TrEMBL record:
<dbReference type="GO" id="GO:0016887">
    <property type="term" value="F:ATP hydrolysis activity"/>
</dbReference>
<keyword id="KW-0813">Transport</keyword>
<dbReference type="InterPro" id="IPR052156">
    <property type="entry name" value="BCAA_Transport_ATP-bd_LivF"/>
</dbReference>
<dbReference type="InterPro" id="IPR003439">
    <property type="entry name" value="ABC_transporter-like_ATP-bd"/>
</dbReference>
<comment type="similarity">
    <text>Belongs to the ABC transporter superfamily.</text>
</comment>
<keyword id="KW-0029">Amino-acid transport</keyword>
<keyword id="KW-0067">ATP-binding</keyword>
<dbReference type="InterPro" id="IPR017871">
    <property type="entry name" value="ABC_transporter-like_CS"/>
</dbReference>
<dbReference type="GO" id="GO:0015807">
    <property type="term" value="P:L-amino acid transport"/>
</dbReference>
<protein>
    <submittedName>
        <fullName>ABC transporter ATP-binding protein</fullName>
    </submittedName>
</protein>
<feature type="domain" description="ABC transporter">
    <location>
        <begin position="3"/>
        <end position="233"/>
    </location>
</feature>
<keyword id="KW-0547">Nucleotide-binding</keyword>
<dbReference type="Pfam" id="PF00005">
    <property type="entry name" value="ABC_tran"/>
</dbReference>
<dbReference type="InterPro" id="IPR027417">
    <property type="entry name" value="P-loop_NTPase"/>
</dbReference>
<dbReference type="InterPro" id="IPR003593">
    <property type="entry name" value="AAA+_ATPase"/>
</dbReference>
<dbReference type="GO" id="GO:0015658">
    <property type="term" value="F:branched-chain amino acid transmembrane transporter activity"/>
</dbReference>
<dbReference type="GO" id="GO:0005524">
    <property type="term" value="F:ATP binding"/>
</dbReference>
Length: 234
């Protein structure tokens, strides 16, 4: 098991947002956590990346207890994140944004160039725009850049907070195709989403409601399921 979250509680100040959450991700899986706005998806991402502490329960990544692991160490272990709102630096160039994805690593110049070439091979649209300001990119290209930057961190598990946010369905579909291809290259994914379109790309889905796990099902089962609709309406 690559990621194991066991009965975890966390929140902000005295406000508990995640109540007794348990979930796991196996090596090579694409797992979605689906839930409406305000249900705790971003809070879960912050817990996993180390911004928020574990109040109770246990989180482990490839056997390492994350409760005692700094955010920097997590990144070095291969736990990388594409944050909510993409986290692109608008005033920097595309190339500079990419390089920031590797700052926490100790790679040589040659290794960095090889990583950059590999990542640009995944996103040829960005290759011709390295010197352009990130702010000049379309929304879809900015999300590509966010994904490309995360790949520069050599993720084993990539956490993605709302890949679909603010993007047209066709562009979301293209990005999910890239996610599938990356899985073939050995990346495991945990994707939190509001949009059910994420079910098409993922193997397994948890439904999160009011900070609680309500369901754990193969995504294909949920695609045409009344349970999914019901979980959003309850
Ligand atoms: N920085 C914060 N301080 C206090 N409460 C927060 C903070 N961020 C989020 N919350 C609260 O935590 C709950 C879950 O938020 P969030 O994890 O952002 O949900 P989602 O990503 O599913 O939309 C909400 O009630 C929200 O108001
Ligand atoms: Mg959110």
């Amino acid at each position: 098991m690559l990621l194991d979250v066991e009965r975890v509680r966390t929140g902000y100040g005295r406000l508990e947002v995640l109540h007794d959450i348990s979930l796991h991700v196996e090596q090579g899986e694409i797992v979605t956590v689906l839930g409406p706005n305000g249900t705790g998806k971003t809070t879960l991402m912050r817990l996993l990346s180390g911004v928020l502490p574990v109040w109770a329960g246990q989180v482990s990544f490839d056997g390492t207890d994350l409760g005692r692991t700094t955010p920097e160490k997590r990144a070095a272990l291969g736990l990388c994140q594409l944050p909510e709102g993409r986290g692109i630096f608008q005033t920097l160039t595309v190339g500079e944004n990419l390089d920031l994805g590797a700052v926490s690593s100790r790679r040589s110049g040659a290794e960095l160039r090889a990583d950059r070439d590999r990542v640009l091979g995944v996103f040829p649209e960005l290759a011709g725009r390295l010197a352009a300001s990130a702010s000049s990119l379309s929304g879809g290209q900015q999300q590509m850049l966010a994904l490309a930057r995360a790949l520069m961190g050599r993720p084993r598990l990539l956490l993605i907070d709302e890949l679909s946010f603010g993007l047209a369905p066709r562009i979301v579909g293209d990005l999910f195709t890239v996610v599938r291809d990356l899985r073939e290259d050995g990346v495991t994914f945990l994707i939190v989403e509001q949009q059910a379109s994420a079910l098409r790309v993922s193997d397994r889905t948890y439904i999160l409601r009011n900070g609680r796990n309500e369901l754990d099902r193969p995504s294909a089962e949920l695609l045409d399921s009344d349970e999914l609709v019901a979980s959003y309406l309850r």
